Structure formats: structure tokens, C-alpha cells
Amino acid sequence: MSEESDSLRTSPSAASLSENELPPPPEPPGYVCSLTEELVTKAREELQEKPEWRLRDVQALRDMVRKECPNLSTSLDDAFLLRFLRARKFDYDRALQLLVNYHSCRRSWPEVFNNLKPSALKEVLASGFLTVLPHTDPRGCHILCVRPDRWIPSNYPITENIRAIYLTLEKLIQSEETQVNGIVILADYKGVSLSKASHFGPFIAKKVIGILQDGFPIRIKAVHVVNEPRIFKGIFAIIKPFLKEKIANRFFLHGSDLNSLHTNLPRSILPKEYGGTAGELDTTAWNAVLLASEEDFVREFCQPVPVCDSILRQALPPEGLSSDAQCDDSLRAVKSQLYSCY
């Protein structure tokens, strides 16, 4: 349906409605771009986003969803669909597949996605396992800082950490700036032991990487790993086979060499824990941002959603989302590596 035809659509008058017929709900507010001129130019150059065609492209994706996935329970708002177009550089087919994968992932891993709201993750947030740094990098990327050493496995399962990461990504991707610039991940593996690493086996690795690569509309521009012990070689041996080459090339292992980290992330934006000058690492500000979004997450993730089996069967499974049985051989293959590296 064209943009012009949308503009010609009018609501029926009260006189045309029967006594028992209610008027349709009002249309959601139209899309208003919040990007700066600089980011509009960046989106045009890097994502093939043309402002003059933007709503036409959104309408094209909306029409494809209605035609090819009529039973897919999804938002069709301009702003929501635009996330998927930007993540796939306005390739309609790839954007549609990403949208289907997004919902398939949410429905295929209930331990992570059921009842997903900040108040259900207060223990994870209080632990300091993850936060978003207050300053962006020189490219405008928000920096997601993950510290596995803050997780105590006896307190809660590893899936709670994954829920907290996904919650954070959902909050970040609401920003059009993040949709265009992407994010950077800073992972501090200081103090990660063999027993803790064993919780992150091939099954979990494949699921998480499958979501990040093929089931979520976000651009990961770099992953910086610091303070990694020898055991990380084993962890990376689990992860690497599931990574696309483009993503694998964006992993940077710095060890304890913070000068190496600073060539990518300036000291001025880093907390002093990582040799920076931006003060001490504070997780409370980001926790407050998430907790203030409680109602949004309840509305999005805590309502019953009809599962359309036919749609999920048609969805091409994201890379890394295969069955448990397919992970068994990988697990046996890397166990020896984990022990030899420790």
C-alpha cells in the first residue's frame, strides 16, 4: 500500500456506523525523525537510508508482513519496523526475516523471555554484572560493559544474566541514534574461573550468538575483551565457530594491556577501573533507567502472545539456534580445550 493511499484513508463518519459497531481505534502517532543532520547523512551513507523514501520503505515492509506473515503477532508501527530496516540496510527481504527471527527467538526460549521486566532482575542489576557507560565512543556508540566476575552461579542461573543483557539491548535500541551508530561491548573477564566458564557451554553460546547476529535489530561494531585469563581461550573456542566472519573480526583481545584498549576507546570516556578519567564505574544510573521503564517492558513482554506455529515453522532459524542434540559433539570437543587452557 503506498504512502499516498495511506494519506487518503479517512475514518468512517458516525452516521455510517451501525448501532452496534464501534469506530476503529485511532492510528498510532506518525513517525517523527529524531536524528541530527549528521546522523541522517551517516544513515544515508552506511545504511542506504533515504529520508525522502523512509516511510515508503516502512510501508513496503509492513505490506510484506501482512501478506507473507499475516498471523505474526507484531507491532507494525513505523518506528518499530524502522529498526529492522536499518539493521539490514533497507533490504526488505532481510529485514522481514530478521523480524520473524526476532519473534521466533522470543518464543523459543521462554526461560529468557517470559516475564522479562526490570523488577524481575533486581538481583542481577544490583550485582553490577552489566551497565551502560555514560559516555559514547568517538563514533557515537553506546558502550555496554559486562563483568562476568560479578556473577555468583549459586545465586541464580546464567539465563538471568542473558535476560539482563537482552533487557538492556531492548532499551538501547529504542534510540534512533543507537539504531544508526550501533553499540560497542566491553567485556571484563577478570577472575573468571573454570567452574564459572563451564556454565557457558555450546548450547547457551549458540542461542545467544544466534540472537545477537540474526534475531535482534542492533549493530555490534566492536567487542573489546580485557583481563581475560587463559581460560578465555577455551571460551572463545566455544564461541568462534558460531560467529560470522564479520563479527569475529570485530573481537579485540587486550589482556591486561589497557594501552591497547585506549587505542580504540579513549581514556576520557572510560571509568578509572579501565585506565580512564571519567570517574569510578557506576551502575546505579543505568539501573535506574531500566527500572523506570518497567511499564514499557510489562506491556511488551508480560502479556500473553498467541503462538502461530505455521509462522515459526516458516522462519529460517537464526544461526546458532539449533537443537540441543546438535551441540553435544561441540561440547565434547571443547571440554578438553577448557581444561588445557586453565
TrEMBL record:
Region spans: Disordered: 1-32
An example molecular function term from Gene Ontology annotations: phosphatidylinositol bisphosphate binding
Record field: compositional bias (Polar residues)? 8-19
Question: Pfam families, from UniProt?
Answer: CRAL_TRIO, CRAL_TRIO_N
Residue limits of the CRAL-TRIO domain? 117-282
Task: Report the GO terms under cellular component.
Answer: membrane
The name of this protein is TTPAL protein
Gene3D superfamilies referenced in this protein's UniProt entry, alphabetically: Alpha-tocopherol transfer, CRAL-TRIO lipid binding domain, N-terminal domain of phosphatidylinositol transfer protein sec14p
Which InterPro entries is this protein grouped with? Answer: CRAL-TRIO_dom (IPR001251), CRAL-TRIO_dom_sf (IPR036865), CRAL/TRIO_N_dom (IPR011074), CRAL/TRIO_N_dom_sf (IPR036273)
Sections of the chain in a coiled coil: none
UniProt cross-references to CDD domains, sorted A to Z: SEC14
